[in-house]
Design goal:
51% of the residues lie in helices and 8% in strands. The chain is mainly alpha-helical and 189 residues long. The chain has one domain. It is an enzyme of class 3 (hydrolase).
Length: 189
């Protein structure tokens, strides 16, 4: 029952009301049917929407990409133990080989190709910091690949906000997310 669902929606009672909604980074199609009507209604009625990061802003995407890179002149091969680097390279070769069989007919119908998708996810991997490579490898699974092309809930809501001409903003800056991850030492990663 919709009325009995836990919604991850908090209301700040003021005039007009403000809302705080907790999202997760999964394809919106996996969770949309389970988001209660009160959360959807609060989103529809809101005029201003703030997200963790503004994933519709080209600067945000560019800054996220840049923050993942090792310092100029360094490559992953320089910072990873030789055996781990070799195993990583072999695994990425395996993923690249398997990706065509992991993709759905719907993805192909939308013009997504395995080589393009692999490069979009793993392109320039040899220049990335180990923590970002770890996160990248964790997302290179058959289940994750099959969901590519469908926006995660945060991005879907941001796109909807733009489409509905809502004012949008971000709570955090890229650097506030990037620097803590880049500050992890190798043993922590």
């Amino acid at each position: 029952q919709q009325s009995e669902m836990n919604s991850f929606l908090w209301t700040i009672k003021r005039d007009p009301p403000s809302y705080f909604f907790g999202t997760i980074h999964v394809p919106y199609t996996h969770v949309w049917d389970f988001i209660p009507d009160n959360s959807k209604k609060a989103f529809q009625q809101s005029h201003i929407v703030y997200f963790e990061l503004d994933l519709t802003d080209p600067y945000t995407i560019s800054a996220l990409t840049s923050c993942q890179l090792l310092p100029h002149g360094q490559n992953l091969q320089d910072v990873l133990p030789r055996d781990i680097y070799r195993r990583l390279k072999q695994h990425l070769e395996y993923v690249k080989l398997m990706m065509p069989s992991w993709m759905t007919p719907d993805q192909r119908g939308k013009g997504l190709y395995a080589d393009y998708l692999f490069n979009a996810i793993a392109g320039n991997w040899e220049r990335k910091r180990p923590v970002w490579v770890m996160l990248m490898v964790n997302s290179l699974t058959e289940v994750d690949i099959k969901s590519r092309g469908t926006p995660v809930l945060d991005l879907y809501l941001a796109q909807e906000a733009k489409r509905l001409s809502k004012q949008t903003g971000a709570v955090e800056k890229v650097e506030e997310q990037c620097h803590p991850l880049n500050g992890l030492n190798f043993s922590q990663v």
